[in-house]
Amino acid sequence: MGEFFTVALLNPMVNLLVLLNNLLFGSFGLAIIAFTILVRVVTFPLTYRQLHVTRQMQAVQPRIQEINKKYSDPKRRQEEMMKLYREAGVNPLGCLGPMLIQFPILIALYSAVRIVLPNSPEALEKLSSHVYDWSYLQHALPMQEFFLGMDLRHPNLLMVVLVGVTTWAQSKTTVTVSTDERVRQQQAMMNVMLPLMFAFFALQFPSGVSLYWVVNSIVGIGFNILIYGFKPLGIEPFFKVRAPEPAPAAAEPVPAAAAVSSAPESRTPSHGPGRSKRQNRRRRPD
């Protein structure tokens, strides 16, 4: 499995980075930026599928809350939720496929950036083993480690701050307001914890990896605005998602007493059989 990962994902990404470095005037910082944008554009169909399913799930949340309040039986509740998903055309597992496919790609991206930034002779020798036997690529090694005055092989405080800010901005363009108080509290907590967590990681990573993360987050913000829109700036979603119609209100049962009172009265005609017999007896001659 490790050999397949190296041959199918890691090596092509390493060589693409080296190729972009040569095409972009020997600037490895520009190579990382171009590489990140290129990969995000290529994987956009997977990202779109994941965000689209997420938005559909958010659209049916009011209906799900109605079901949770209405049905106390877990089995009946599950049946009603599955019925709702079918009516709305929503697959609750639809976002797992794109996530599972993107996960090894993201790992390979991170590994490729670290490999192409060797910080020792041993690491440089390891990089040579990943680069294809093509003189145009082999002669590019080692590559320029500096970009905008920072050493891409070591952590940089500015990049740490940018990682935290862009991660926060991406979460703000992803999360939508929920009617559930617990969900809102969890969203608020994640909006704070995730930027701090990734900023802490950036303190340990080379700034080249942080540059990749910053550009990746900026592109992700653009994708989120296309899918979700951005209400603070009045930006509507470019890709519309039709929300399911609210459930029709069930007709209230008519009380039995009201049904009886509303039924037409059955009246006995004044010339019914009983009265006719009495009148006939009176008229019969003695």
Tell me what the structure shows.
The protein has 286 residues and is an all-alpha fold. It is 67% helix and 1% strand. The chain contains 13 helices and 2 strands. The chain has helices spanning 2-23, 28-42, 44-59, 61-70, 74-88, 96-116, 121-130, 135-138, 157-174, 181-202, 207-228, 256-262, 273-283; strands at 146-147, 150-151. A two-stranded antiparallel sheet has the order 1-2. It is elongated, with a radius of gyration of 34 Å. Residues 246-270 have low confidence and may be disordered.
In which order are the strands of the major sheet placed? 1-2
Number of strands: 2
Structural class: mainly alpha
User: How much of the polypeptide forms β-strand, as a percent range?
Assistant: under 5%
- Indicate the mean pLDDT: 77
Distance between the termini: 119 Å
Helix amount: 55-70%
- Give a quick account of the main beta sheet: strands, pairing sense, barrel closure: 2 strands, antiparallel
Number of helical runs? 13
Query: What does the overall shape look like?
Result: elongated
Residue stretches low in confidence (pLDDT < 50, at least 5 long) are: 246-270
Rg for CA atoms: 34 Å
String of helices and strands: HHHHHHHHEEHHHHH
Task: Itemize the secondary structure elements and their pairings.
Blueprint: H1 2-23, H2 28-42, H3 44-59, H4 61-70, H5 74-88, H6 96-116, H7 121-130, H8 135-138, E1 146-147, E2 150-151, H9 157-174, H10 181-202, H11 207-228, H12 256-262, H13 273-283
Antiparallel strand pairs: 1-2
Helix pairs in contact: 1-2, 1-6, 2-11, 3-6, 3-11, 4-5, 9-10, 9-11
